[in-house]
Every structure is written in C-alpha cells, then in structure tokens.
Prior knowledge:
The protein is 24% helix and 19% strand. The chain has helices at residues 18-32, 52-58, 72-80, 82-87, 92-100, 143-156, and strands spanning 104-110, 122-129, 162-170, 175-179, 182-186, 192-194, 201-203, 206-207, 214-215, 224-225, 241-242. It is elongated. The protein has 2 domains: 18-87, no CATH class; 99-242, no CATH class. The strands form 3 sheets. Strands 1, 2, 3, 6, 9 and 11 form a 6-stranded mixed β-sheet that branches. A 3-stranded antiparallel β-sheet has the order 4-5-10, with no helix packed on it. A two-stranded antiparallel sheet has the order 7-8. It is α+β, with helices and mostly antiparallel strands.
Amino acid sequence: xTDRRFPHTLISSSINEERSxxxxxxxxxMAAEFDFSVLMQRNSDEVSTEALPLAIHDRSxxxxxxxxxxxEEAVRRLIDEVWKLHEDKGTDDGVALxxxxxxxxxxxxxxxxxxxxxxxxxxxxxxYANEHLFEDEAVLLNExxxxxxxxxxxxxxxxxxxxxxxxxxxxxxxxxxGLAGRSNAFTQPMGATVLPESGATLSAGTMARGVAFVAQTxxxxxxxxxxxxxxAATGRGHSFLSLHGELLT
Length: 249
C-alpha cells in the first residue's frame, strides 16, 4: 500500500476521532490528484509556460524586463541566472550578464580608458545585438530590442557613474533596415557595426540618427545590396546611434 501523505497519526490524540479522520482522508484524496512537482520550480525546466509570470514575480525579475516583455526563452535564461543577476547588480559584470541573457554583448569604455581622458566617474557603454530577440519583428534593431536593452542596463548598471548608452548590431548574415518605406539590405562577413548620425528609420515608430552602417574597426563598410541609399557610407565614422538612456521616438 502506498504511504499516505496525511496519516491519521498526524491527528492529535485529543481530537483523533471519526470526524477528524474523515477530514484528513478528504485531504489525502485531494492530494492524490495533484502533481506537487509543478510547485518545485527550482529551475526554468520545472516552470510551465503558464507559471512564468508567477516565477518572474517570485524572483523579483520584473525590473529586468521591459513593458514589451521578453520571449519565453529569454525569460527562462533570467530564471536560471537569477541569483547571479541580483548579486552582480551595480557592476560591469552585472550589466554584461543581464545583456548576455537577452542576446546582447556590451563593450565598456571607462573615463580613464578614453583618449583624451573623459569626465571623471563616467563611462561609455556600447551594446551589440547579436540575436534576433523578437521573432515577430522583421528588423533586428527594432523598438522592442532598444527598450529591452535600456531596461536591462538601468536595472543592472552602476548608478554612481554617468552612463552614455549606444546601440549597434553584430551579425554574420543579412540585416534589413526600413528606409522611407523601402527595404535596404546590408551584409558583412563578420564584425561589429554601429549606426552613424543621419536619419534612417530602424523600425516603425522608432527614429534613429543613421542612414548607413559603418564598421567600428578599420574593416570595410557594409556593402549595399539592391536598393538606393540616401547618403554615402563613411568608412571611419565615430558617431553612433546614441540613446543616452532614453528611447529615440
């Protein structure tokens, strides 16, 4: 016979009578129909899709997730790294970990690393999206990705220092930009890229100050494929899509 979850021995001797035993038997019957393993939730594999909102709340992950939410796969990454994520808040490691969980790679340049030396207690943070985070968005650097990156940075960054935030893309295939209602494709075998100032639309409702990609290093600029570009690309531009902590609209 299977061991009972609620044996009659749990009942105090002073009330161990027929009605008490009937009540315990009712609890036993209900427990037999319930799978208690769904309550464990020790890691993301034990959390059902329906229970993800509860897991986010219980682990205080709301501050790391923008109002648009995140894909389920990214949420599960946050759940699995929750302790390290909270522990490293306020450090470069915390920012790097948080962004990596949503497919973004950061590059830090502190004031003392800049030439010439920058303002004291400031740093530049350039982040590169290297994963198509939202599959329902045709554009890699879309508004949702910008919000997701900014939210993660705000939740993990060092508040005792000023942060300049810049967004770029890192990829090995074709990236599409919407420009004046047309689609322009740019390719580069490898390398990180950022957007120079000019005036292109990254996605519906999101205006960036860029019209062409430039390589961050001395690599050739991205070639244009099958579309007319509004201005010539510059091989060594140093202006980026700079959000400075706010979403460009």
